Amino acid sequence: MEESLKENIYGALETVVDPELGVDIVNLGLVYDIEMDEEGKTIVTMTLTSMGCPLAGTIVEQIKIALDDIPEVKSTEVNIVWNPPWTKDKMSRIAKIALGIQ
Which Gene3D superfamilies does this entry report, sorted A to Z (predicted)? Predict the structure, then answer.
């Protein structure tokens, strides 16, 4: 996948906000990988801040809606993984500032 397309996808994913924390999933460090095959099937590998996250379905739906606007993306699959586990260290400086974390 070319770099500009990957940047577009990450940009779209920055519009998906974790409803509990009020910060987008990219800056939270929840998105681990993005892959796309020749047919435009896009797989977003990500984690959640907690295993019992009641909003997982909402976040997955928001990801699909966000990537819908990118012409190259024909279908979206969200693969939620628990390894490696998410930690606050994965958050960007912006997310840490927004949440008041040192």
Answer: Fe-S cluster assembly (FSCA)
